[in-house]
Write a structure and sequence with these properties.
Residues 276-460 form the Bacterial sugar transferase domain. Its EC number is 2.7.8.31. The chain crosses the membrane at residues 14-34, 40-57, 77-98, 104-127, 281-302. Keywords: Membrane, Transferase, Transmembrane, Transmembrane helix. By secondary structure, the protein is α/β, with parallel strands linked by helices. It has 15 helices and 11 strands. The chain has helices at 2-33, 40-61, 72-97, 106-136, 151-161, 195-204, 219-228, 242-248, 270-305, 353-361, 368-374, 387-393, 413-416, 426-441, 445-458; strands at residues 142-147, 168-174, 191-193, 209-212, 236-238, 251-255, 258-262, 311-317, 323-329, 378-380, 409-411. The strands form 4 sheets. It has a 5-stranded parallel β-sheet. A two-stranded antiparallel ribbon has the order 6-7. A two-stranded antiparallel sheet has the order 8-9. The longest helix is centred in the middle third of the chain and has 36 residues, at 270-305.
Length: 466
């Protein structure tokens, strides 16, 4: 059964790769036929190189992994665009470095740049619709059972139900132990029996997959079940509790021939930190160069329309909790920087007319690129909060200060996922911290570029900006 599923994944990846190659190579060759610069051999070499490079970069951006359960427009489309842009820019660099740019038409290359991602996205969307249709009529579906009526088990089931195109069908739940740790099972889920019934179903292969979802109090039971299920024919998977999830995201190292788990540690190696610093310096200087006329205009508008300084400085916590002065264009009639700081709210009377526009468009954040060049901030990272707010939330949210294991950013994973603006409830701050930690655990240069790309498009219509 597992071999069949592996073959299905390989076949799906082969279809995606073949389609991508046809589009990338085909568009370039078709465009070159209508060019006055007739260099079919050169275009063929560039097209084949682009196809191979796109596939290689796609390995790192995960465009060939299973799409089941992944949002298309908020996930796969962004990955495709980032992969294509990196591929194209790398090839252009090679062309200029080889001093062969005169052999290729700029019209062809620019057309190739814009048409290719449109067709890549369209083909992926069409393939999604086709595969989803096959799953709806019962082809390539997976029946799954969940063992453990717990918070993480119920959450997993609800997420599966919200994505019917994923091909997973929940058969029901097995309860593990009557020790008071399990929750009440919603009526629309079938109760399949106890742990003994689950083990028998695993042995007979009644379900395609069984997911174990024990609570943290059932760790001994979980260990026993995993050992007892070792000789079954059904794939067994574990939905981790909060403690296990923390361990899973830890890094392994060895000291004095002893395995060590780095649970709360610097998330980035020296090599990755160097790459991120180079990214910050290059992009920071480029962006400041491009927006410097705009910043001069904003400074003049602030000075002419309200009393007070042009820049607002506030003490924030940075890497490892070190304090620094974050820079912003002043948008309010006050400049709070003490033990008690009131967050900006919708229709806040303290916000100036110019400030309202700056906050809505996030232009008030532009001076923070100087913080980036100084090394206090990064372009992408957890947003820095006022020291007063840090002191408040570190008492309320476990692991809150772990956000400071990485430099704070002008934009971040939480912001592009909708958790920007006022945190008037504890839940909002918890979600922001959750996404910040997800970013820290899974940092990559590709993820940074993706966040920057999304931020550029999302800034002008963010409903949480005020």
């Amino acid at each position: 059964m597992e071999n069949l599923k592996v073959n299905n994944r390989i076949s799906a990846e082969l279809v995606y790769r073949s389609t991508d190659t046809l589009i990338i190579l085909g568009i370039l060759l078709l465009a070159s036929l209508h060019s006055s610069t007739y260099n079919i051999q050169g275009y063929l070499i560039i097209g084949l190189g682009a196809s191979l490079l796109f596939g290689l970069i796609g390995r790192f951006t995960d465009i060939y992994t299973s799409w089941s359960g992944r949002p298309f427009f908020r996930d796969e489309v962004i990955r495709l665009i980032v992969t294509w842009l990196v591929t194209f820019l790398f090839l252009i660099f090679i062309i200029f470095a080889a001093k062969t740019s005169e052999e290729f038409s700029r019209f062809v290359l620019i057309g190739w740049l814009f048409i290719t991602p449109v067709l890549l996205i369209s083909s992926r969307y069409a393939l999604r619709i086709l595969q989803a249709s096959l799953k709806r009529i019962g082809l390539n579906n997976h029946s799954i059972a969940i063992a453990g009526i717990t918070k993480q088990g119920l959450h997993f089931a609800q997420m599966i139900d919200s994505q019917p195109h994923s091909g997973f069908q929940i058969a029901g739940f097995y309860h593990l132990e009557d020790d008071g740790t399990e929750l009440e099972l919603p009526r629309h889920y079938a109760r399949l029996g106890d742990a003994s019934a689950m083990k028998e179903a695993a042995r007979t292969g009644e379900w395609d997959q069984i997911y174990l979802a024990p609570s943290s109090e059932q760790s001994l039971l979980s260990k026993r079940l995993i050992n007892e299920l070792a000789d079954t024919i059904t794939p067994i998977r574990l939905i981790p509790d909060d403690f296990t999830n923390t361990l899973l995201h830890s890094r392994y190292m060895e000291i004095a021939e002893t395995p060590i788990l780095r649970i709360y540690d610097a998330p980035m190696s020296v090599h990755h930190a160097f790459i991120k610093r180079i990214e910050d310096l290059l992009l920071g200087m480029l962006i400041l160069l491009l927006v410097s006329p705009l910043m001069l205009g904003i400074a003049l508008a602030i000075k002419l329309t309200s009393r007070g300084p042009i820049l607002f400085k506030q003490t924030r916590h940075g890497l490892r909790g070190e304090t620094f002065q974050v820079l912003k264009f002043r948008t309010m009639t006050v400049c709070e920087n003490g033990k008690h700081i009131k967050q900006a709210t919708r229709n806040d009377c303290r916000i100036t007319r110019v400030g309202a526009f700056l906050r809505k468009t996030s232009l008030d954040e532009l001076p923070q690129f100087f913080n980036v060049l100084q090394g206090h901030m990064s372009i992408v990272g957890p947003r820095p909060h006022a020291v007063a707010h840090n002191e408040e939330y570190r008492q309320l949210i476990p692991g809150y200060m772990r956000r400071h294991l990485m430099k704070p950013g002008i934009t971040g994973w939480a912001q592009v996922n909708g958790w920007r603006g006022e945190t008037d409830t504890l839940f909002k701050m918890e979600k922001r911290v959750e996404l910040d930690m997800e970013y820290i655990r899974s940092w990559s240069l590709t993820l940074d570029l993706r966040i920057i790309f999304v931020t550029a498009f999302k800034t002008l219509h963010d409903k949480n900006a005020y």
